[in-house]
Amino acid sequence: MLSDIKKLLGEDSKKLRKPIILLTIDTIFHMFFYAMLYFVLLDLINDTLSFSKIKIYSSIMIAAFIARALVNAKGYTEIQARGARAIEKMRISLGDHIRNINLGFFNKNSIGSLSNIMTNDLQDFEKIITHNTSDLIKTVFLSIYLLALTFVIDIQLGMIQLVFVLIAIPIIYMGGERVSAIGKYKKHVMNQVISRMVEYLNGIQEFRAHNLTGEKFERLENSFRDLRRESIRTEVAIVPFVLIFQIIVDISFPVLLLIAITKFGVGSIGKKELLTFIIINIALTNVLRAFGAQYGIFRYLKLASQKLIQTYNTPEMSYKYEEVDFDNYSIEFKNVSFEYEKGENIINNLSFEAKEGTMTALIGPSGSGKTTIMSLIARFWDINNGTIKIGGKDIRDIHPDALLKHISMVFQDVYLLNDTIYNNIKLGNLKATEEEVIRAAKLANCDEFIEKLENKYETIVGEGGSTLSGGEKQRISIARAILKDAPIILLDEATASLDADNELEIRKSIKKLTANKTVIVIAHRLNTIKDADQIIVLNEGRIEERGKHNQLIKNRKRYYNMYNEMEKAKQWEI
Ligand SMILES: Nc1ncnc2c1ncn2[C@@H]1O[C@H](COP(=O)(O)OP(=O)(O)OP(=O)(O)O)[C@@H](O)[C@H]1O
Fold first, then answer.
1. How far apart (Å, rounded) are the C-alpha atoms in residues 449 and 293?
2. Atom 30 in ligand 1: residue holding the nearest Cα
3. In the record, what terms sit under GO molecular function (predicted)?
4. What angle, rounded to 10 degrees, do the helices at 17-46 and 271-313 form?
5. Cα(178)–Cα(296) distance, integer angstroms
């Protein structure tokens, strides 16, 4: 475990040494009470307990008590403060790490499991470093110390004591193994609860619309029930092992006492040794009991650090350059192949060039790979074969953050933070001035609807932007992109039926956003397609046709058919 702590906390683990040492010193002071008890009992037996001796013993006890209080207070406050600071840093670095991992990681880990890692696992790990580790170190240290003292008093008694400990330890270890096994499943159930809760809350509108709230809530309720069952199972799992462990520890006391008294009877140990042994044995029994209880908790909490290490060990996307300047912003795909899951090729040997300052429209049936191409340009995923170059530079050589500085993305599903409209637009460029933010809002045709709101730019938009219409949200995301002013624009046009006003506003704002930029657009509208410098028709991750509108119409193939479909749909709308 200490190696886990070192691995996860890095340099910060050294800062925990001091409070742990302080808390261990506290246990040494704790021993003073047993020492005093020994002397008092000895004096009572020898009838030598005088008032002056009582004064000395009391003073030592009071001094030990004060020393304990001081050391304990210092140790606990330091370990809490340092632990909390270390965990805060870990949260940030874990967030950074996850940001730079290939998105495949999110495919393999559900929302529930990721939330669990970022909240519960980190909290459990915090408990390990702020409470559990020092308590365990204390009990282990004290047990060894007391056991060694037993050997000093009498080797035979020490050996018998050791036998009891050696029988008890594997039992508590087995209990720990059981807790680990069941705890893993409990964590899995916990992930499911969070995932279903997110699913329920996100989809509540949809579920209501389809009269599914009852069924979906039942799904959620079932996961709550599973969690309750697993929580009880985890708690109960350790009980038999702790009980047997404690029975062995408890039995060891009278057995050893009997043997010690017999030895005293036959004269192989003296009165002093017998007394010392009794006191040490009482102390050791208590310490071992505490160890048993702590160990179960420790094994459960330890699961958290394993999950955290696993996440840390997921490699980040590699890169050669931390920052990059491009000579130009042409995008080139050369024999690119890509699969999300092994054996399922989604993009097949794809080659095309989108020249700087031009607009490339991607069209094709659902699932043909349009969104995937966008994600590959932004390096959310790394390709399996071929190269993607921007301005002649392979994007795999560039840090994902550096690459994204040159790219603006406007997607259909706009996610807004639960913050003011102003701050949501400013996300495009955190260094932008107020005038720049308002200018971008005006260019994106947001200004008019924002001015109608009671708190204008200071209006809080609600989680995910729930208080705004789809069109308004999309315009805010366009304002963001205008503010960012990146030379490459990846744009997924809205398919959702926007009202005519909204559509017109959005079209105008997109025109301003995309002027003179390298634009890749998933096109759903005829105007966009007609205006594009190049149209790529995709099917099953392959280019089926490519060219300008007039050219493709003449070809009379898939594009011609799709275009006619769109025309018909347009007439229907009218
Ligand atoms: N994260 C993912 N993990 C696994 N498979 C995925 C993932 N995202 C997309 N796919 C699969 O890749 C294929 C291409 O999907 P993509 O979203 O690129 O298509 P699209 O042309 O944009 O479709 P649409 O027009 O419906 O948005 C689909 O079969 C889809 O199921």
1. 62
2. 367
3. ATP binding
4. 170
5. 9
Q: Are 318 and 399 in contact (CB under 8 A)?
A: no
| Tens-digit pLDDT profile for residues 212-268 | 666 667 777 888 888 888 888 887 888 888 889 989 999 999 999 999 999 999 988
User: Among 371, 383, 521, which is best to mutate for testing ligand 1, by the most ligand atoms less than 8 A from CB?
Assistant: 371
* Nearest atom within ligand 1 for CA of residue 372: 18
Torsion angles phi and psi, residue 350, rounded to 5? -90, 130
The preferred substitution site among 370, 409, 537 for testing ligand 1, maximizing ligand atoms within 8 Å of CB, is 370
Q: What whole-number distance in Å separates Cα of residue 65 and Cα of residue 48?
A: 25
- Going along the chain from its start, the domains and CATH numbers come out as 2-313 (1.20.1560.10), 321-406+487-498+516-574 (3.40.50.300), 412-485 (3.40.50.300)
Give the number of the atom of ligand 1 that is nearest the alpha carbon of residue 541. Answer: 14
Q: What is the pTM of this model?
A: 0.71
Identify the residue whose C-alpha is closest to ligand 1 atom 2: 340
The pLDDT assigned to 397 comes to 93
- Rounded alpha-carbon distances, angstroms, from residue 466 to 186, 412, 463: 33, 15, 6
Q: Which amino acid is at 194?
A: I
Residue 308, token pair as written in the block: 């955290």
Say how many residues make up the chain: 574
- Calculate how far, in angstroms, residue 384's C-alpha sits from the geometric centre of ligand 1: 16
What residues does 518 pair with on adjacent strands? Answer: 488
Task: Report how far ligand 1's centroid is from the alpha carbon of 369 (Å).
Answer: 6
Q: From CA 451, how far away is CA 346, in angstroms rounded?
A: 45
User: Among 199, 234, 224, which residue's Cα sits nearest to residue 213?
Assistant: 199
Q: Which residues line ligand 1 (CB under 6 A)?
A: 107, 340-341, 346, 364, 366-372
Q: In what helix (H) or strand (E) does residue 483 lie, and over which residues does it extend?
A: helix 470-484
Q: Say if residue 182's pLDDT is above 90.
A: no
Q: Whose CA is nearest to atom 13 of ligand 1?
A: 367
What lies within 8 Å, CB to CB, of 501 at 6+ separation is: none
Q: How far is it, in rounded angstroms, from Cα 381 to Cα 375?
A: 7
Rounded to whole angstroms, the Cα distance separating 409 from 428 reads 10
SS (H, E, C) 443-512: HCCCHHHHHHCCCHHHCECCHHHCCCCHHHHHHHHHHHHHHHCCCEEEEECCCCCCCHHHHHHHHHHHHH
Can you tell me the distance from the alpha carbon of 26 to that of 73, in angstroms, rounded to the nearest whole number?
10
